[in-house]
Amino acid sequence: MNKKDREKLSHSEYNKILKTIVYPIAGNKSTYLQDLNGIGKKLLGVKFRGVYPSDKIPKLNDLSPYCILNLDTSKQSGSHWVALAKLKDSKNNSRNSILYDSFGRDNKQIIPALRYSGNGRILNDTKDREQEVSETDCGARCLAWLIFFDKYGAENALLI
């Protein structure tokens, strides 16, 4: 299967997870820290580290490789959710992570402190936008992406 077909299939499966698993629990509107934390634990179990502001980014590990971050700091009210997933340690022991932003922005622009979080080199998913500015379902999209990542792996998650 070529990359274009894999990308189309990945988007289709991501949307299916979003609509059939996440929306029924989280809804398709704004979500709050407590909501995302509870739903993340329910859907991903101990693999879900939790939900954090951008000034309290946790160091992820192989047991708890997933979290959701808000672009705002702990002193702010919250603006937009993004997801972070740690890649399993490879043969060369590189510790990289992938950041998913439903608006498709570069991680260095939206959370500059991420590179100092101890989560290795931060890779971006594709610069593909899944969310329109008028939509407020970024938290649900983060959960769907993490579930997709958990089920289909980093190579396919990078296509979303």
Highlighted features:
5 helices; alpha/beta; globular; five-stranded mixed sheet; 160 residues; 15% strand; single chain
Q: Cα-atom Rg, whole angstroms?
A: 14 Å
Average pLDDT, rounded to a whole number, is 91
Strand content: 15-25%
Number of helices: 5
Rounded to the nearest angstrom, the distance between the terminal CA atoms is: 16 Å
Spatial strand arrangement across the major sheet? 1-2-3-4-5
- Structural class of the helices, strands and pairings? alpha/beta
Unreliable sequence segments: none
The sequence of SSEs as H and E is: HHEEEEHEHH
The count of strands amounts to 5
Shape: globular
Q: How would you sum up the major sheet? A: 5 strands, mixed
Helix content: 25-40%
Characterization of the model:
With 160 residues, the protein is of the alpha/beta class. It is built from 5 helices and 5 strands. Strands 1-2-3-4-5 form a 5-stranded mixed sheet, covered by helices on one side. Helix 1 crosses helix 4 and helix 2 (33-44) runs parallel beside helix 4. The longest helix is centred in the N-terminal third of the chain and has 24 residues, at 3-26.
Give a summary of the structure in a few sentences.
With 160 residues, the protein is of the alpha/beta class.
List the helices and strands and how they pair.
Elements (H helix, E strand, L loop, with lengths): L2 H24 L6 H12 L3 E6 L12 E5 L10 E6 L10 E4 L6 H4 L11 E3 L13 H15 L1 H4 L3
Parallel strand pairs: 1-2, 4-5
Antiparallel strand pairs: 2-3, 3-4
